[in-house]
Amino acid sequence: MSHKFTVDAPDTRLHGVDTPGAGPPLLFLNGGFATRHSWRHVLARLGGTHRTVTFDARARGRSGASADCSLRAQIDDVDRVIEATGLDRPILVGWSHGATLAVCCAVEYPHLIAGLVLVDGAHPLSLLDEAGRRRVRARSRRPGPLTPSCPSSDARTG
User: What is the pTM of this model?
Assistant: First the structure.
């Protein structure tokens, strides 16, 4: 049976739900303006096959307002939720901003995280060295099959 929990943070309180299951634990990280309820269809499909933990990020859903919604605070919140729920090396499932947060948490706390599932997230360029940044920039400038053709800057200026 699922149980609700709260986690105290320096200037807020996080609210979440912990649901038991047989498989590896999954910790869900919401999109930027989403709440833990965004995962309800995914959780229903899992049908108890995994222990699942969802929570509302600071200033979202049932969690309290906060003066600090920085990425640093959010990374620390994930660590707090892992500790408070006693999750043993969960798989982080992040959607959109939650995917970026999951990558940042895995970089900072690799010993706490068993894996990542990243859904529709952007790659945080700040984690790359300069050569990696150049590769990402070059790939994002390459036209793809759905990229509209644009005139060169010379053609636009006459």
Answer: 0.79
pLDDT of residue 126: 63
End-to-end CA distance of the chain: 69
Say how far apart CA 20 and CA 1 lie, in whole Å.
7
Q: Which residues of 117-146 are buried (b: 16+ CB within 10 A; e: fewer)?
A: ebeebeeeeeeeeeeeeeeeeeeeeeeeee
Q: Minimal CA–CA distance to 53: which of 68, 36, 38, 69?
A: 36
Name residue 29's beta-bridge partners: 94
Model confidence at 83: pLDDT above 90 = yes
Higher pLDDT, 99 or 126: 99
Assigned CATH for 3-157: 3.40.50.1820
CA distance 117 to 91: 7
For the chain, domain boundaries = 3-157
**Res 134 pLDDT > 90:** no
Q: Identify the H or E element spanning 141.
A: helix 130-141
Complete DSSP assignment for 47-72: TTSEEEEEEEPTTSTTSPP-S---HH
CB 52 within 8 A of CB 3: no
Angle at which helix 71-85 crosses helix 97-108, to 10 degrees, equals 70
Rounded CA gap, 112 and 89, in Å?
5
